[in-house]
Specification:
about 290 residues; alpha/beta; Rossmann fold; 2 domains; 12 helices
Length: about 290
């Protein structure tokens, strides 16, 4: 039987439409495509809790899914606007449903706040392009979410905010010099969430599109000296996306198979499907 996923889009309507115009897909559609690459017959429904009056699943609806996935977002959770609070409330319902959940970046932040933690701007500044030298913690070395990852690895990333207060029930699985919580498991109210601060779902092509829309940030915050420098960097990402065998560009930008190989880059999502979604579905089937 096909696995059923609910993909929860973290962005407002205007932001997700802007992404679709630039990339061809909304972030939730792109995430669903990754799930369907992993599980060819997966059925993915999309939810838009940032929209006022959005039709969101109730408790029984959430229980009907085999897994829930939360995307990134342009929002800042500490603003506590209605479009944000609806997402926190939905995450609390996801925990209560017992349905396995996974999230990237914003998804991790929402899950942490819904469990009683806190998120604030990173005093070290923004992490852009790639999260470097992600290191598995002692617990993370044996945790199935990071199975197949080396002790130290890089991953696509773009975020300013980070989890600054861990909720009860949070286990940190990976960290780096920029953020202490780069990968974590959170258990609360009968539910289990796996999440990462980076974006294993991003291809280099999608990352390039996102950075192209943020050239002013790349220049203003000192990541690139000029808009032309930013354009050159983005062009290299697009070339690596099209031709991952370009060893010269991989060397120039310090990326390896953990980023360039789609299977390795999406390892955490694949592990979530294998170790959380399938096992929970099997256990529910026996109940």
């Amino acid at each position: 039987m096909a696995l059923r996923f609910l993909v929860v889009e973290g962005n407002t309507q205007s932001a997700r439409q802007a992404h679709r115009e630039a990339y061809g897909l909304m972030p939730s559609e792109s995430y669903a495509a990754v799930l369907q690459e992993i599980e060819a017959d997966a059925v993915c429904d999309l939810a838009f809790p940032a929209d006022e009056g959005a039709n969101l699943p109730d408790a029984s609806g959430l229980e009907s899914y085999d897994g829930v996935v939360l995307t990134g977002s342009h929002l800042n959770i500490y603003d506590r606007t209605p479009d944000i609070l609806r997402q926190v409330d939905l995450m609390r319902s996801i925990y209560a449903s017992g349905t396995p959940s996974f999230g990237s970046c914003w998804g991790l932040q929402v899950a942490a706040v819904a469990a009683g933690g806190d998120v604030r701007p990173n005093p070290s500044g923004r992490e852009v392009g790639f999260a470097r030298r992600l290191m598995r913690t002692a617990i993370g070395e044996a945790h199935p979410m990071l199975g197949g990852r080396p002790p130290v690895y890089d991953a696509p990333a773009i975020h300013l905010d980070m989890v600054t207060a861990q909720p009860e029930g949070c286990t940190v699985l990976a960290s780096n010099a920029v953020s202490a919580v780069q990968a974590a498991e959170i258990t609360v109210n009968g539910g289990t969430f796996w999440g990462v601060q980076y974006h294993p779902e991003f291809s280099l092509g999608e990352l390039a599109v996102i950075l192209a829309r943020r050239t002013n940030i790349l220049v203003a915050e000192g990541f690139c000296r000029t808009a032309e420098d930013a354009a050159s960097y983005i062009a290299d990402l697009n070339e690596l996306h099209a031709n991952p065998q370009r060893a010269d560009l991989a060397w120039r930008h310090g990326v390896d198979g953990e980023v360039l190989d789609a299977t390795r880059r999406t390892r955490e999502i694949r592990n979530f499907v294998e170790h959380q979604v399938r096992r929970t579905k099997s256990a529910r089937g026996r109940a």
